[in-house]
Specification:
alpha/beta, D-Maltodextrin-Binding Protein, domain 2, 2 domains, 5-stranded mixed β-sheet, 3-stranded antiparallel β-sheet, about 15% strand, SsuA/THI5
Length: about 325
Amino acid sequence: MTGITRRGALGLMGGAAALPMLGRPALANTKVVVGALNFTSHAASFVAYERGYFAEAGLDVEFKFFQAAQPMAVAIASGDADYAVTAISGGLISLAEKGAAKVIGGALSEEKGIDGQKILVSDAAYQAGVTTPKALDGKKFGMTQAGSSFHYMGAKIAAAEGINLEYVPLQKVGAVIGALKSGQIDAWSIVPHIAKPLAGSGAVHIIGDLADYIPDYQVTTVFTSAGNAANERDKTAAFLAAFSKGAADFNAALVDKTTSADEAEAMIQLVHKYVYSDKPYDKAKPGIVNGAMRINAEAALNMGSVQDQLSWFKAEGLVKDTVSMEMLVDPSYVKTM
């Protein structure tokens, strides 16, 4: 994708499969900027980098870190990042509709039997009797932006419970955390590596599991510019192959727990370089372990979940009704389900 600046990408938003072998010589030292959040859910990228899988694929990776999903979509469209992993947002869908971005694979997923995202409430709300999702009627639910995954999650909870929520956009995850702890908002839903330490502090309380409301939710996806998807197939396939090797290592060590204790410890130490790196290791370790959710094998993509998300964004008027799955997803790189 060429010719779209960051300002242009923001304007567009407002208008709103087998993988090859690694190490192709033609890709030697190809510079790639990868968008990420400092979340355990992004561990596949971190593992692929730290264990040399990107380098083996001929990719010289640099990470660019963000505080929310929508700015990451802007960076992909403007060329400030080449690949990214985060939740589907209204901004990403609008950019895809304009031919600026494509979802090319799946990453984090809710899976039955594996601890997933939690529904949280502030201590003030909990003490006032908000101890179940049903009791959230009329309460303030935090999100980064309108049209974010948090907006989608809150809406699915509200629809299932037959309640109404007041959505409060706070732009950054850190701001949502602060507002929840101080009682400025009543509720939120987030991945367990953040939810459980917050609940352990006593400042917030867990009152439910998101999987009860959105089973098999494709929480995050891998996406790139439409230009990369269409015209840089070797590079894109190599990125996905390396990413998938990182995901396999992460799943084995911390999700399926099929490795040795030493190997699991090494994985936690690796992730700690990027997640809770401001905390001592012994303080960070429980959150990393508790936050280990499945990252899809070989970046397989749950098309049913993506379709549900797209349908919700369209029904809410957050994206154009004419947006199709073909505009949003390039299914040619990975297995779909």
